[in-house]
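Margin note: ligand = zinc ion.
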Amino acid sequence: MISQRSIDTIFATTRIDEVVDDFVRLKKRGINLIGLCPFHDEKTPSFTVSPTRNIFKCFGCGKGGNSVSFLMEHEGFSYPEALRYLARKYSIELEETQVSEEYQEQRQERESLLIINEFARDFFVKQLHETDTGKSIGLSYLKERGLILKTIQAFELGYIGSDRDALTAASVGAGYNIELLRKLGLTTSSDRDFFFERIIFPIHDLSGKVVAFAGRQLKSNKKSPKYINSKESEVYNKSRVLYGLHLAKKSIRKEDRCILVEGYTDVLGLVQSGIENVVASSGTALTVDQIKLIKRYTNNIQILYDGDPAGIKAALRGIDLILEQDLNIELVLLPEDEDPDSYLKAVGVTAFRTYLSEQAKDFILFKTGLILDEAGDDPVKKSSLIKDIIESLAHIPDPIKRSVYTKQCSSLLSVDEDILISETNKEISRRMRNQRIDKLREARSDHEILRQQVGQQAAKTQTYEIDPPTVTDEYQERDIARILILHGNQVIEKDPKEVTAAEYILSNIQETLTAFDNPLYAKVVSEYGRQIEQGRKVDANYFVNHENQELAQLAVEFCASPYEYSENWEKMWDVYLQTQPKPEENVVNDSYQALLRFTLRKLQKMSDENLAKIKECQRTNDQGELIKHLQVQQILIQKRNEVADKLNTVIL
Ligand SMILES: [Zn+2]
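Resulting structure:
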């Protein structure tokens, strides 16, 4: 693991404006920089970078964070990958600390797998360019298909001949573990090469590392498929990879559109003709993870299909997933018997581009037209198809877009628009209900975990049981989290000894931690407590730079929040940062009040719940329990009154 000292150095050195500037065009505005948000579609910039705070914040879509979270979001890096990127950018040497053996083994294995893939790629490339069969069979095949050397090299294409031991023998000879070769699927269980007599297409991850291979057959052989792929491994999850994305991402962002094709050679052909914003889903039906990859760069997808109706129908099923991600999808149907590569070759790039822009049809309308043709006059078929369309409509999150489509579909299908709207609404509420149930289940289990974590401490201080609260106290909890993050270090009492706002709040709050409704705010409290216990000083930056992205996001919100609803927020934010001392000055009162309000709410809730138990005991005539609960009630009311009194004094 990267040592805390290295992480601290990275955060101290990194400048958010320099990091973002590599990806987003920024303009100076006051003490901040602004640009068009890379995370949502916008015409006027609301994406702001604050060099003073070292954070970014988009006031359009709400995304915000530090350099690390920017890279994680924008480049799809993991936390350590983002740190390594920054270390490289700023030439910081990384110290690695001891990690658990298991983790280290896992990481070492992952790295070894990637190294072996690199070795295999180089081997295949060498076979293509430097052996006689490679040149006469492999290279000449690729050139026949119209590929030039530059493209072949850019995509690192390779070749493997008929010798069924070539790669395995070379790898083992170079000292690589055959067990790992098997894990990657390069070597079969009978220790022979998996790929032979094939053109090899390396499959890369976002950062350009080779994670797998696809092999295309050269001789037509009915016994084995035209394409075979590496099996999934520690480094390759086929539903999370898009072929060609590592080269296409820049162009996708620039063109604000991603073209999706089916085959590897389609990608190569289009890129070679100068259409670079193209990727392939490489042998899988489109998955949500792949769509999310695309969404990092654009909201517009254009899918090219060869004109095979069965294939199109199968592919359309996956597209509801894209709708849900709020992407704009256009479909282009290619002329019969043409694939993107062959059609491009037949008509040339200019005509190809014109065809794409003229033939592109919006997905819903495309689907409606297609199934309408299929249903003909059959009323039973037609009604089931209408259900199908309603399901697609219900997947569109943007209500304005949805209503436009509903109108168009109603006229295409000759169905009354009101009926279509009400059926779609039913479908939406059915889905929302299901989502709510899932969320509730999740929240319950979060709450359980929290209870277990702090339960031991609570058990020491409390003699009565606290049930999970039913009404939420988000506001009070958020206030506590806000004061801790922004002002926790401020000294609020000097006599008899110095007490910071955080110490004051934490010492009073521990026993109610189990009663937090919002697990994120509870996490702020427990994380703060943990750091203080270890003698560390915690400030807003600590949370802004936190590894947990939810915590970091919350901290950024607090840092930018005083004016988050102001239309003229940017100017206000500048003013706030430069001249506004008020929130800090008020910390003492703020802390006392927030804590008292919080405690009052919790006590009130406990007493309500206890009261319900008293009533239950009265109903069942359980005298022993009744007396216990009555005593508890007395204590609760007494405490509540004390707090209410204090709150009045403080307020006055
Ligand atoms: Zn945004």
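The longest helix spans residues 417-461.
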